[in-house]
Amino acid sequence: MQTSRKPIIGVMGGGTVGQEVEKSAFEFGALVAENGWILLNGGRDAGVMRASAMGAKSKGGLVIGILPGFQKTQANPFIDIPIITGMGDARNVINVLSSDVVVACPGGAGTMSEIAFALKNKKPVILLNFDVRPFFIGYDLLFVSTPVQCIDVIKSCILKN
Amino acid sequence: MQTSRKPIIGVMGGGTVGQEVEKSAFEFGALVAENGWILLNGGRDAGVMRASAMGAKSKGGLVIGILPGFQKTQANPFIDIPIITGMGDARNVINVLSSDVVVACPGGAGTMSEIAFALKNKKPVILLNFDVRPFFIGYDLLFVSTPVQCIDVIKSCILKN
Amino acid sequence: MQTSRKPIIGVMGGGTVGQEVEKSAFEFGALVAENGWILLNGGRDAGVMRASAMGAKSKGGLVIGILPGFQKTQANPFIDIPIITGMGDARNVINVLSSDVVVACPGGAGTMSEIAFALKNKKPVILLNFDVRPFFIGYDLLFVSTPVQCIDVIKSCILKN
Amino acid sequence: MQTSRKPIIGVMGGGTVGQEVEKSAFEFGALVAENGWILLNGGRDAGVMRASAMGAKSKGGLVIGILPGFQKTQANPFIDIPIITGMGDARNVINVLSSDVVVACPGGAGTMSEIAFALKNKKPVILLNFDVRPFFIGYDLLFVSTPVQCIDVIKSCILKN
């Protein structure tokens, strides 16, 4: 009767990004679902949050959105489970702590804060075409350039833990 | 492809409660799952949190646990999706905001804080054998004495919203 | 060179209260300042928060306001140090944890949540004309009916700690 | 009777830093106090938090520490007002939101998260010998190499606001 928990893959990334980044986030979300993992992101109806959720739902995945505001209506239509924090940016900490692996797509300061928190909390962090390695010297950061590569690295992270 | 979101029923209640309360929380959790709703609680391995999650899993439900600490290991074995906040008691606010309906079983100060937050945020609050109505004068609080009655009241709340 | 820390007295209470309650909060704030203690409250420009801050400033005290929103402009004009949380109701936890002694004036659900958190975190809680003792059976709650009595009880709490 | 609020200068920076960085943080803290401003930092008894607080107290300043844990004992001995959040890293958001100007000394991932939050919330950010400008392309980041320069830039920020 106990549940056998599925890995939760956190996808971070900007709310305002180019089409290429959205396409990559969509593909990555679809692969997360195909692997039977849960996708978690910041839940808003924009950029990487919307695209990765849409990708996961296109393959019947389960998607959790950790929202900064007070209303479920803030969630994009591909979020199955909106977690409403009412805590603004402080919800970024929850995004990271709740993820077994953190994947960072291109983004701005919000995404940077999530990478920083993930490293501080010793989560595996994979950069998907977002190379900020020079700025976190002394930390262990993995870089991949395609969604498929990212999935392979996640598999090795999950096996290790 | 859009998701059709299932109602999230938040179950609050003490970590240290009597057997009758745990039995009632288990039954209620089972009924939540049978109705196809998602159960959300505070996730720890004690009292109402454990019993209601166990009840929901006994009927194949989906259970979310919003945890106060930093580790997934704090979750009871019936939590499918542990949300790790690292925010201590402040996670009680998230419990309430993320629930479409809040059900309060007997508990202590933590449960009282959740009822208070739910009322402040105008969530429907149903007291399941925990009659604190005299202490929240001027607020709209529903009281039921059995899990089955509770389900009926939830149905009317969901229809209204 | 080390600082000798002054006691921080947290004053909780409603944003919408009667004139008698505001008068009592003002008097109490003035007494806190006269005793050389720091006054901490929820910082907004209403009810007990405004009145107690005004009282403390009338005697040259130092007042900290822990604000729920994102803007310093939310603070009443008697707050010396606005702490901006952007966390909504979750800031109630910070109000309580940061106080050496918690004093609760009459209020609604927000005040109830603060009393609950204070008890859960084993802070001394003094009810100033707000008798919710029947509500928190099994917890240690002190009741006083005047600001002067309240000061006497605070003194005994501070000596103990 | 209204208070005339003093500017709050937030000092971010690592818990483990070299002697040069601590010396600079101390000097900067002293200058903040000499200018009659309030110094705010993360409050712990380490690195930039301890050094900047000690500097400010050496000139009779007022120091606020926003602490991640649950205990006032976590504060360094130069903190006048320990704000206890019990929220772990989420307190970094409060550090930033409560500051009128954010100064970042060298640090690790925690400091990076604070710079990111400050930029996201459009706070003036001054980098004191911590050049992460290439990291935050498209954001307005000021760089200075000495505490004295930093004070000059703060003055211009305060005048603007």
Characteristics of this structure?
homotetramer; about 160 residues; Rossmann fold; 5 helices
Question: Could you please describe the fold and organization of this structure?
Answer:
Chain A has a 7-stranded parallel sheet with strand order 4-3-2-1-5-6-7, with helices on both faces. Chain A is built from 5 helices and 7 strands, in the order E-H-E-H-E-E-H-E-H-E-E-H. By secondary structure, chain A is of the alpha/beta class. The two termini of chain A are 23 Å apart. In chain A, helix 3 crosses helix 4. Chain A has a single domain, classed as Rossmann fold. Chain A is 38% helix and 18% strand. Chain A is globular, with a radius of gyration of 14 Å. Chains in contact: A-B, A-C, A-D, B-C, B-D, C-D.
Topology of this protein?
Four copies of one chain form a homotetramer.
Chain A: E1 8-12, H1 19-34, E2 38-41, H2 47-58, E3 63-67, E4 81-84, H3 91-97, E5 101-104, H4 109-120, E6 125-128, E7 142-144, H5 147-160
Parallel strand pairs in A: 1-2, 1-5, 2-3, 3-4, 5-6, 6-7
Name of the level-1 CATH class of chain A: Alpha Beta
Please, what is the average pLDDT of chain A? 95
Major sheet of chain A: 7 strands, parallel
Task: Provide the number of structural domains of chain A.
Answer: 1
Low-confidence stretches of chain A: none
Q: Report the end-to-end length of chain A measured between terminal Cα atoms.
A: 23 Å
Structural class of chain A: alpha/beta
General shape of chain A:
globular
The proportion of residues forming helix of chain A, as a percent range, comes to 25-40%
Number of helices of chain A: 5
For the biggest β-sheet of chain A, the strand order reads 4-3-2-1-5-6-7
Order of helices and strands of chain A: EHEHEEHEHEEH
- Could you tell me the CATH topology label of chain A: Rossmann fold
Pair with the biggest interface: A-B, 31 and 31 residues
- Gyration radius over CA of chain A: 14 Å
